[in-house]
């Protein structure tokens, strides 16, 4: 009877021992594919609301690690970057038109660096607080008209003619001989002016490069079974973080200067989920799904009485599916 009781006690104790919390450091590397989506919105471009839309699938990497400090605290350092960016068509739609008013070819790269403190609850869950840096870079080229471009150009001209704040300076400039056409000839009539400045994407738009960098304060919660059981078997992880924009810097090749903003103007959201297998206490592999989203308000800065630099409202979100290898040698 005593032997049976001892055997039963050991059987009950074994799973409890395996589920004991352990704050253990580890490193990881992952690679896979990420679907990136980007859009811009302008409330008034030549009298119309204009929205762009772009989507592509890129080859990406994720890497970093976790370092334990004591029983409750530790910190993560994680990186993300695009390795190969796919070129895809970007479309621009305007209110009142049945299809895109222009198109271009674009490619987008995404980079991120996260430094995050973790406070463990002792049950596999932990609170997160840190700084998120991201850089969204894209290039636009191969601008083309569509079957809606001519009508859109007519609409822009009508809007300018019927807006005194825009049309009066043009009339004054024509009278003063301030405008020249592409051949260098002085423009002397309104017809010549609008012919010279008519909206033609393939003729008037060049290659555009833009880098949008930002820092955000992030906080959230995550659960990782690794901190409860590092023996052979399944491992799973899930979490979410929300970020508030602290600083933003945007450099566009079409502008004369960089645009900056401090505190506010945007939020970030990140979701993580994964499942895998721990082959031994020191080595494991997982399939990870992570989603990143950022919403940014537009930035507008007046350079002088006649020129304004503007970054439209923009939205970025991406979904990545990667294969990860973890180790704690």
Question: How would you portray this structure in words?
Answer:
The chain is an alpha+beta fold. Helix content is 16%, strand content 59%. The protein contains five helices and 14 strands. The strands form two sheets. Strands 1, 2, 3, 4, 5, 6, 7, 8, 9, 10, 11 and 14 form a twelve-stranded antiparallel sheet that branches. A hairpin with a 4-residue loop joins strand 2 (48-68) and strand 3. The chain is elongated, with a radius of gyration of 27 Å. The two termini are 44 Å apart.
Poorly predicted ranges (pLDDT <50, ≥5 residues)? 5-17
Number of individual domains: 1
Q: Tally the beta strands.
A: 14
Approximately how much beta-strand content do the residues carry?
A: over 45%
Helix content percent band: 10-25%
Instruction: Please identify the top-level CATH class.
Output: Mainly Beta
| Shape summary | elongated
| CATH topology-level fold name | Lipocalin
Largest sheet descriptor: 12 strands, antiparallel
Mean pLDDT: 87
Termini, distance in Å? 44 Å
């Amino acid at each position: 009877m005593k032997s049976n009781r001892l055997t039963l006690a050991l059987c009950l104790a074994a799973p409890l021992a395996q589920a004991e919390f352990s704050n253990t450091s580890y490193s990881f590397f992952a690679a896979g594919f990420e679907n990136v989506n980007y859009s811009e919105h302008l409330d008034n471009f030549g009298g119309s609301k204009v929205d762009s839309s772009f989507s592509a699938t890129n080859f990406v990497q994720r890497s970093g690690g976790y370092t334990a400090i004591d029983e409750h605290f530790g910190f993560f350092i994680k990186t993300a970057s695009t390795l190969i960016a796919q070129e895809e068509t970007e479309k621009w739609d305007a209110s009142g038109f049945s299809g895109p008013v222009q198109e271009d070819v674009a490619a987008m790269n995404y980079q991120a660096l996260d430094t995050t403190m973790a406070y463990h609850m002792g049950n596999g869950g932990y609170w997160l607080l840190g700084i998120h840096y991201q850089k969204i870079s894209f290039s636009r080229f191969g601008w083309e008209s569509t079957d809606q471009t001519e009508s859109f150009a007519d609409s822009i001209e009508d809007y300018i003619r019927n807006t005194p704040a825009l049309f009066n300076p043009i009339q004054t400039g024509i009278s003063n001989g301030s405008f020249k056409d592409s051949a260098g000839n002085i423009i002397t009539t309104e017809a010549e002016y609008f012919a010279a400045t008519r909206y033609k994407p393939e003729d008037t738009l060049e290659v555009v490069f833009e880098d949008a960098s930002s820092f955000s304060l992030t906080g959230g919660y995550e659960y990782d079974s690794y901190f409860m059981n590092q023996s052979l078997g399944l491992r799973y992880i899930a979490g979410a973080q929300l970020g508030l924009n602290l600083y933003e810097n945007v450099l566009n090749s079409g502008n004369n200067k960089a645009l900056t903003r401090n505190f506010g103007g945007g939020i970030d959201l990140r979701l993580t989920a994964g499942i895998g297998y721990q082959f031994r206490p020191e080595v494991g592999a997982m399939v990870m799904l992570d989603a990143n989203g950022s919403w940014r308000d537009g930035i507008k800065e007046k350079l002088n009485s006649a020129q304004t630099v503007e970054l439209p409202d923009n939205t970025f979100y991406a979904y990545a599916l990667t294969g990860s290898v973890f180790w704690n040698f």
